[in-house]
Amino acid sequence: MITILSFKSILAILATLIIAFIISIFIPGIERKYIHGRIQQRIGPPLFSPGLMAPIKFFFKENLKPNSPLPKLYKSLPVISFIVIFLILLFIIPQFYIYGSLASVIAIVGLLKVEEIAYVLMGSLSKSVMSTGMSFPDKIKGAKHLNVKSSFIEDISSSRALRLIIFGSFPLYLALFVPVSTVGSVYLSDILSYQISHGPILFSVSGIIGAIVFFIGYMILLNEYPFAILKTKADVIEGPYMEYSSKYRAINYINRGFLIFVLGSLFSLMFLGYPSNIFSWKFIINVLVALIFPVLMAILSAFSPIFTNKQFYPVILVSSIFGVLAILLGLLI
């Protein structure tokens, strides 16, 4: 039997999605102007520039045909990422909890994995440099490069994105299962109900450890310093989405702010019991958490170097161990 949402529930979901998206537009500007700008003692860009004006500008840029074996899939990846982020926010809105299997931690983790896989495909499907195909090795007459493997800059990003999926995302996913171990259920409705009755999971030993692990995973998933392994000078900083232009680059800009907000909202639900619901006063707390997280991230990243692999992997290992510890402590409550 298919459950049908009431008109009020549909209105609440639509209003929450729209307000959340509007707020997410301001997050890159807050991050760049009021945090990085102040710390680095510069004016910084206008508040609307990174999250609103930059995407609008790119929407009107000329669209270039990428040199890719699957150009349509390559171009669609930013759109797929946006849809995935949109669905994560949709599933954590309380009015959607009647669809139990979708409104669960398992579904959220699966969608986040799809978002991560998009980075790997972005790098592996681009075979150009600044949208211009270049032969490597040099194939002009007289140039001999026997048994040399051809490669492209984005291949480097793709391999780093794969390492990020295999290792880097462990802390975030382990942290998401701390409330699951405490409540004994993977369903978001049960996690919310438990915190309404017993108080926020954050105010427990397992919750505190889980929150720290979540924040580390949050920064890793957003590819922010010091965990910005997707962006290096070797591939002109932009990493796997270097070759995107026009509206596809605009969508990439929008995706980052939207993902920042959604991850903050997810933490608010999982550890505080304050869901994304425009019809509840708790939505204010949800928004504040979603705004505080990027502020803390911006402060930390402004003072952080870029981790090398020798620094990155031990942090992942230690964070994962603490994540497992938090899960075990949650089981003992």
TrEMBL record:
Keywords: Membrane, Oxidoreductase, Transmembrane, Transmembrane helix. It is a multi-pass membrane protein. This is NAD(P)H-quinone oxidoreductase subunit 1, chloroplastic. GO terms for molecular function: oxidoreductase activity. Its main location: membrane. GO terms for cellular component: plasma membrane. The gene is ndhA. It is found in: Membrane. It comes from the Archaea. The chain crosses the membrane at residues 6-30, 73-93, 99-121, 164-189, 201-221, 253-272, 278-300, 312-332. Its EC number is 1.6.5.11. Pfam families: NADHdh. Signal peptide: none annotated.
